Amino acid sequence: MTPGLKFSLFAIALALAAAGGYLAGGLRGDGHAGHTAVPASTADATPGERKILYYRNPMGLPDTSPVPKKDSMGMDYLPVYEGEDQDDGAVAVNPARMQALGVRVARAERRVLEQPVRAVGRVEVDERRIHDVAPRFEGWIEQLHVSAVGDPVRAGQPLFTVYAPELASAAEEQRIADTLAGRLAGGDDEARAAAERLAGATRERLANWQMHGGGTARRSFAAPVSGVVLEREAVAGMRFEAGRTLLRIADLSSVWVLAEVYEHDLARVRPGQPATVRLDAWPGEDFAATVDYLYPTVDPATRSARVRLRLPNADGRLRPGQFARVHLATGEAAPVLAVPDSAVLDGGERQSVLVEEGEGRFRPQAVRIGRRDPEWVEILDGLEDGARVVVAANFLIDAESNLRAALAGFTAGEQRAPAYRATGTLDELYDDGSVSLSHAPIAELDWPAMTMEFTLAAPGLADGIAPGSAVRFEFEARGPGEYVVTHIEAGHGAEH
Fold it and tell me: Where is each CusB-like barrel-sandwich hybrid domain found (predicted)?
């Protein structure tokens, strides 16, 4: 193990020392971090009391003791109880402390996940319910019955009265044609047919002008639908041309909401889906809507597509232009294995949960997660249906588990490093924590006598030894070409 890695693990242990000390005492139910209990090797445990196996360094250093002791800073070594020395990261929690810390568990269960798509939009007029009032002939407005934008109108309600010379001319032509056809009813067939053609042409022209029931010089235009006036061009006394829109009326009994949905959510949106709309004007109230249409283009600037929703508006509370928040329900019908969202400990590349094993023991379990909804997370692998997982205070248990795993890995690394003993002469000490040694042959490594540099495990390891002194030392091979002196002392019998 390199000095840098050793320092990093020490820093981890130091950062978790407070949590480790608290949990070591709090989670075990002893009420304090320091202990003066008699170790199991020297006294028998009383009935119901757990057996102490050994004491570990409170700062996470790879040092244990069979009896209570203090470190160089005066901190008590922490006891390790029977059953807590396993290397699976499991943590035992005293029932009293579970209640004090608020530890809660829940079962993994199969359920249908709701995967909402959230979007924002605005209320708009239903374009299919807009009607323009535009005469198909020219004339003058003699009287205006609706004079302001926003006025409500009823179907059939008079809007304005017009005078049109073309209507007077058509009315006279129809009167003459009808009279002529009546006089020739029993006369010449050819003349009668000509009179009927003239009368038919006049009626067709009036029908094209939408003037049914005969022509007169003055006609009143009625509202085609019930709604409100969106636009008004009509002014009393004004002259208008054929085809000019004088009034625009919208039926607001049903409105649209145009919402922007991000590109990555488009696959989960389809026409006919139910939706919920909320408006700032009525906080806390949900309006039921339906996805009516998904527009075929994506805005290259916002990477979003427009979705149209249809809402009933019989009471007229929804007004065009209002800001809307849209919630699209896109959950799948098939249930999946899921746990509460608070149960998942997300480390970025690795996710895990704490599984209750009974008798106050909790074990970290790596899982593979899938879809999420506001309260639940799908578990794809690593957990069985019905497993009990921690959903509250799990970060405290996880902190103790991580500390134990770090210490176990640290100690294991120390034990795996091959160690060797040798004698020689200390040639020189360097400021970077290394030392030059002329050592005797080392049979285990098939090394001849030579001079080489070693790294010191601790900066002050060789303090008090003068260059040129004969020494006995121990070192470890912690990697290819990496040899670390773990112990050195001045001594006799060095060979060259």
Answer: 133-250
Among 117-126, 184-193, 256-265, 435-444, name the one with the lowest average pLDDT: 184-193
Q: Is 31 exposed, middle or buried (0-12, 13-18, 19+ CB in 10 A)?
A: exposed
**For 104-114+334-392, which CATH class?**
mainly beta
- First-to-last alpha carbon distance for the chain, in angstroms, is 29
Cα R_g (the chain), whole angstroms: 45
pLDDT in tens, 359-404: 778 888 889 998 887 788 999 999 999 999 988 876 666 665 565 5
The three-point CA angle 474-476-479 to 5° equals 160
Give residue 81's pLDDT: 72
* Cα–Cα distance measured from residue 330 to residue 112, given in angstroms and rounded to the nearest whole number: 11
CB proximity list for 127: less than 8 A, separation 6 or greater: 256
> 417-490: which CATH topology?
OB fold (Dihydrolipoamide Acetyltransferase, E2P) (2.40.50)
The residue written with tokens 């002259």 in the block is 239
Residues 6+ away with beta carbon under 8 Å from 250: 125, 126, 129, 130, 131, 227, 228, 230
Amino acid sitting at position 473: F
Identify the bridge partners of residue 312 per DSSP, sorted by sequence position.
254
